[in-house]
Amino acid sequence: MKAKAPRPSERRGSRMRLPRRERGARGGPSLGPPIQNTRRGQVARRTKETDVEVDLRLEPGEARIATGIPFFDHMLEQISRHGGMALTVRAKGDLQVDAHHTVEDVGIGIGEALKQAVADKVGLARYGHAVVPLDEALVEAVVDLSGRPHLTFNAKLPSGKKFIGAYDVDLTQDFLQALVNHARICLHVNVRYGRNLHHVVEAIFKATARALRAATAREAGAGVPSTKGLL
Length: 231
Ligand SMILES: [Mn+2]
Description:
The protein has one domain (38-215): Ribosomal Protein S5, domain 2. It contains four helices and ten strands. It has helices spanning 70-83, 100-118, 171-183, 197-215, and strands spanning 40-46, 50-57, 63-66, 86-93, 127-134, 137-144, 150-154, 163-164, 167-168, 186-193. The strands form three sheets. It has a four-stranded mixed β-sheet, covered by helices on one side. The longest helix has 19 residues, at 100-118. Manganese (II) ion binds next to helix 4.
């Protein structure tokens, strides 16, 4: 008897991929039957620099985060908890170089997963905003699931410090840029004030999470939330 060759579905990484019809489809009125909005995105992305897996569901649930960068894990847990998302992120990056590739590629992975999860945006609020304090720090974030990537990042970070643990605070903007580019959303972040660097950066993640939660919320009878009929 011949030994069975491994099925393609048993190859490493392939279980995270979605069927073709669920990838990047727009589901406009004349493009066939509407896409079923699963509110879920799954991404497996491997380069010479990083190996990233993301599983994101738009419903409150557990955060399972392991990027090798403890403060960044703490921030992604905020996205999950305050964004109302069940979120798994596993990343193995070239941290011997520095954290940049890993943080940016996790941003790409979460962005792509979010794009899948909102699909054609039928029935979603589309806009969301939040102003979040963390003690003396106050940060505003505004989201539009516009289909067009844009980031405004107004953040004067306090003190001369640049690092929180092994996390370079500059990477906050790089993470958000990767996220908006791949989710194809518009995001405005305004740090109103704050003294403690940890508080300011954490409030940026929390405000972004709350704004995303509002934008991805279901709204009864909303249809496609655009007068164009397509987003
Ligand atoms: Mn904290």
